[in-house]
Amino acid sequence: MKNTNYSFNDKLRYRIDNFMSKGSSSIFLALMVLFSVGFFLILFIRIIANFILPDETLSSWFEIPWRVYVAIIEGSAAETDGDSNWVAKLTSIVGVLVGLVLFSSTVAFITSVFEAKLAELRRGRSMVLENDHTIILGFGDRILEIIRELIEANESEPDAAIVILADQDKETMDNIIRDNITEFQTTRIITRSGVETNINNLRKVNANKAKSIIIMNSAASWRSKKELKLADAMVLKSIMSIIAVCKGKTHPPITCEIHSDRDRDLAENISEGSVKALNEVSVLSRMIAQLALSQNGLSVVYSDMVGFDGNEFYFFEPEAGWVENLTFGKSINHFKSSAPIGIHNRNGEIILNPPANTEISNGDELIIFAEDDSTIHFFDEPVFSPSTSEIPTIKQEYNPQKVALLNWTPKTKIIIERLCTYVPENSEIHCYISKKGAEMDDLLSNLKIKHPTILVTINEIDLNNLNSLDRINPISFNSLLILSPSGTTIEEMDAYVISLLIRIRQILRKSQSNEWPKLITEVMDSDNIDIILNSGVEDFMVSNQFVSQIMAQVSEEPLALDVYDDLFQAEGSELYIKPATYYFSFKDNKPIKVAYGECVQAALLRKEVIIGLQIHDQQKNREKMFGIKLIPSKEKEFTIKPDDGFIALAEDEA
């Protein structure tokens, strides 16, 4: 039963409160009503006054509304009644007072609305009206590298947009981006604050109309298992939220980072759309393991490969279709300055370095390594006809390797396991860490069963003590890997690595040996590369940059991650830098002049694909990419020396 024991004033006040609480539109309407009431009330008084005491300054009765209006709107305009009688002047004064109250209220209201709108914009809560844009969910250490890569990728687009949604202050995000990135080219950066897993926030950034979506993982790989598990769960929730925004239909390609292999498989099979999940530890560990055993310079090739500011992978099929009787071996000479390295067949399989006689037909795509998709041109007739028909017979002797790893990180275990699959029998892998854990003994037991001919040890030493490092005899190793430990900031992590590198370098110099072990260092910040290179390091891995570049590349081409997965595993073909003596005979060790197309043919005879060469004399020259020359034109001639090398995609190092 309704309670009616309320006074009229209470009911009226209650209704007014409800009306005003609806927002700015209600307040504006109320001000307009008050203005109208005030105007008509003063107009009525002025008309009555004119009946009682006519105003001789009026030209007609129709002038009264105008005088009342200007008195209310602009007080100074009331001087038009300066020659009027005292009654007209009195009504003008009342109109001015009413106008001051109403007009100042309206100005205050409009100002407050604008301030509220500006505050809302600063909070980053407004709608994003973009199509075919790239969305980044999250704002972490890798965000700047990802943005730089996407700007490079969007260079050929006249108007591209990157929308960042993160649970951070919009102004803070904008300032960080502006302070670190100066060239945006044709790309606009739009930031919005909000929870990345919230469906309403995803709708605000038009997630269903995006070209691609990148989901950042909030936990770095060195965090605790509990933090990693929670961060992975948030990534999975973000994927489900995107699917919900798209109403279960086809969603934009999603690229994300997930630490757990189990959750990674779950993410990639969560929907029928494209979801590519990257495991940072797995990818980087395999790359570092390959660097440890390859000729110097492979990290430069990787760096060029994963970034848009260089060469990358493309999946190509000509619009007119492939020519008849085309095989993979023949296809290589149908491209001038780009290199086929594999096939993405009609069944969805990716095959790197397939047999030369593998047939290519319509529906198959070639995996092309090229500077840009605009540089890929398939010619119906071969652009180069090689004459090389013989290669030297090489009897490769696999000498045992002795490798040292300094620091225990989430990558160390995988690197050791990978090295065991790469190194020859009777090799040694020694890990030196500050404190051993129980799980390390289990690792050693398993490796002893799987690889009985390889000696693997994990030793506890003080890595900050020069004498302790001296006792491990660094000069006796073939390769020394200095891994980046956990830390609060990436600058702190790099500082520790550099200090450890300085101590190792001091010991190596003290030995007075002409042959140092190969030094490989993991770096987090690319700004520290110059410091690393001046410390005697021959190969380096910029972890943060590499992962960011791969994520950006996969967001543009999801199948690129499948290529990387295939490329960085022990089975199948990997990248090596092999001596030129494997491909050509050098009489009396004299240089030979040869077209690059002949080098490509020599590699085919070895059942390999080469993507470039390395000039030994330029290995120390950073300005010339440390001697690395990638995918030159097949007609270009080079003077090759025995100590030069070829960058080959091959099944083994021999």
| Order of adjacent strands in the largest pleated sheet | 3-2-1-4-5-6
User: Helical stretch count?
Assistant: 20
Helix content: 40-55%
Assembly annotation: single chain
Morphology:
elongated
Q: Compute the separation of the termini in Å.
A: 93 Å
Largest sheet, in brief, is:
6 strands, parallel
- Which structural category do the helix and sheet elements fall into? alpha/beta
Number of strands: 22
Report on the structure:
This protein is α/β, with parallel strands linked by helices and 654 residues long. The protein is 40% helix and 17% strand. The protein contains 20 helices and 22 strands. The strands form five sheets. A six-stranded parallel sheet has the order 3-2-1-4-5-6, with helices on both faces. Strand 4, helix 8 (225-245) and strand 5 form a beta-alpha-beta unit. Helix 2 packs antiparallel against helix 4 (86-123). The longest helix is centred in the first third of the chain and has 38 residues, at 86-123. The radius of gyration is 36 Å and the shape is elongated. The protein starts with 7 loop residues before the first helix and ends with a strand.
List the helices and strands and how they pair.
Blueprint: H1 8-20, H2 24-52, H3 63-73, H4 86-123, E1 134-137, H5 143-153, E2 160-166, H6 170-180, E3 187-193, H7 199-204, E4 212-215, H8 225-245, E5 254-257, H9 261-268, E6 275-278, H10 280-293, H11 298-306, E7 312-316, H12 328-331, E8 339-344, E9 350-352, E10 365-370, E11 402-406, H13 412-422, E12 428-433, H14 438-450, E13 455-460, H15 466-471, E14 479-482, H16 490-511, E15 518-523, H17 529-533, E16 539-542, H18 543-556, H19 560-567, E17 574-579, E18 592-595, H20 596-605, E19 609-614, E20 628-630, E21 637-640, E22 645-650
Parallel strand pairs: 1-2, 1-4, 2-3, 4-5, 5-6, 11-12, 11-14, 12-13, 14-15, 15-16
Antiparallel strand pairs: 7-10, 8-9, 8-10, 17-22, 18-21, 19-20, 19-22
